[in-house]
Amino acid sequence: MTRDNRILEGMYRLMSLTRALDQVLGKHDGHWHGLEGEEAVMAAVYYGLRDTDVVAPHYRGAVTAALAKGADTRRLMAGFLGKTTAYHKGRHRSDVCGPPELNLIGLYGGSLGPPLGYAAGAALAAKLDGRDDVAVAVFGDGTSSRGDCHEAMNMAAVKSLPVVFVCQNNQIAISTPLDAGVGGPIAARAEGFGMPGIAVDGNDVLAMRDAMDGAIARARAGDGPTLIEAETYRVAGHFYSDTEDYRDAQEIARWRAKDPVARYRRFLIDEGVMSEAGMDALDAELVAEVDAAFTAAQADPVPTPETLDAEDVFAAEAAR
Ligand SMILES: Cc1ncc(C[n+]2csc(CCOP(=O)(O)OP(=O)(O)O)c2C)c(N)n1
Predict the structure, then answer these.
(1) What are phi and psi of 166, to 5 degrees?
(2) CB 5 near ligand 1, within 6 Å
(3) Residue 266: other Cβ atoms inside 10 A
(4) 219 SS3 class
(5) Quick check: CB of 113 below 6 Å from ligand 1?
(6) Closest approach atom of ligand 1 to CA 174
(7) N or C: fewer beta carbons within 10 Å in the chain?
(8) Is 140 in the pocket of ligand 1 (CB under 6 A)?
(9) Counting beta carbons within 10 angstroms of the beta carbon of residue 222, is it exposed (0 to 12), middle (13 to 18) or buried (19 or more)?
(10) Ligand 1 atom nearest to CA at 139
């Protein structure tokens, strides 16, 4: 990666913001799907995309994707609370459905897998329009076993579509460990579709960024899709109220010692890019920003029952 301090700092900000979400939302919402341990993947994948690039994020990290695409924190927080001020006017949670106006594809039906096909469709649209925009489709290791995932990769390879597929392999799907749900290395599947597949240390934000840069450049140049498998670990429970009686505390401790944020902070200090005090101040500022946005959104109104009948249901209605 060519050294650019603006990018290095921007990725730190996104990692820190991701951690801030855990700190604030984990306090309020037992259904919040924690991000701890996977911040490097999210920062490297979502930082610096164009407004016109389309992203189908994995639900775990979708809020980071929205923030990276320029979403307003207050409106995202309103989306957790079902408020009318949210991007989806209180109809969809913002941790799974990012603002479509920012070119984010949401998990509207709640079914994991279909958004990969939608991302391939967005890439096909870019290709047909002659734009050099890309689509980024992110999914978990559990989701990688879905048929939709294979169909989307095959179509993208056949049509040489500008898609970057990123598997956020955090070693577990709810309580099913990787080796009980996935029959071989995920990156190796790419060969069967005729596209490059790369396995990357997902706790190394710089290695991830390198892989993303290469895959995005390839897609923009019209050379087709790439599959990146980011090897990381879900340090958090499946969600915050998870009792986690299905896994070993020592395994969690081993991975917590490989914390991607601490690792990147050491790099930034050693390279003189950011100071420890500067990063501490930024961390505190971002927690305060997310907390203030959440608190402010609590006072916003919820949708009234009359709006459920037809408002926003038909496209023609919205166009009037
Ligand atoms: C098609 C489908 N099957 C099952 C579920 C229920 N479900 C929600 S989260 C989840 C785990 C997905 O695991 P993975 O893709 O590895 O993502 P992770 O939670 O580890 O980030 C499952 C099975 C779903 N949402 N959609």
Answers:
(1) -125, 120
(2) no
(3) 11
(4) helix
(5) yes
(6) 11
(7) C
(8) yes
(9) exposed
(10) 15
Ligand 1 atom at minimum distance from 169 CA: 16
Answer yes or no: is 320 within a domain. Answer: no
Tell me whether residue 304 is exposed, middle or buried, using C-beta atoms within 10 angstroms of its C-beta: 0 to 12, 13 to 18, 19 or more: exposed
Distance CA 161, CA 152 (A): 10
Domain for residue 307, yes or no? no
Q: Give the total number of structural domains in the chain.
A: 1
- Structural tokens at position 54: 């389309």
pLDDT tens, residue order, the chain (320 aa): 668 999 999 999 999 999 999 999 999 999 999 999 999 999 999 999 999 999 999 999 999 999 999 999 999 999 999 999 999 999 899 889 999 999 999 999 999 999 999 999 999 999 999 999 999 999 999 999 999 999 999 999 999 999 999 999 999 999 999 999 999 999 999 999 999 999 999 999 999 999 999 999 999 999 999 999 999 999 999 999 999 999 999 999 999 999 999 999 999 999 999 999 999 999 999 999 999 999 999 999 999 988 877 787 776 655 54
Query: Which residue has its alpha carbon closest to ligand 1 atom 11?
Result: 173
Is the CB of 141 within 6 Å of ligand 1?
Answer: yes
Domain range for residue 244?
5-301
Q: What token pair was written down for 175?
A: 């309580």
Question: Candidates 146, 169, 174: which one to mutate for ligand 1, based on the most atoms within 8 Å of Cβ?
Answer: 174
Distance CA 21, CA 283 (A): 11
In a domain, 151, yes or no: yes
CATH number at residue 102: 3.40.50.970
Q: Is residue 165 part of a domain?
A: yes
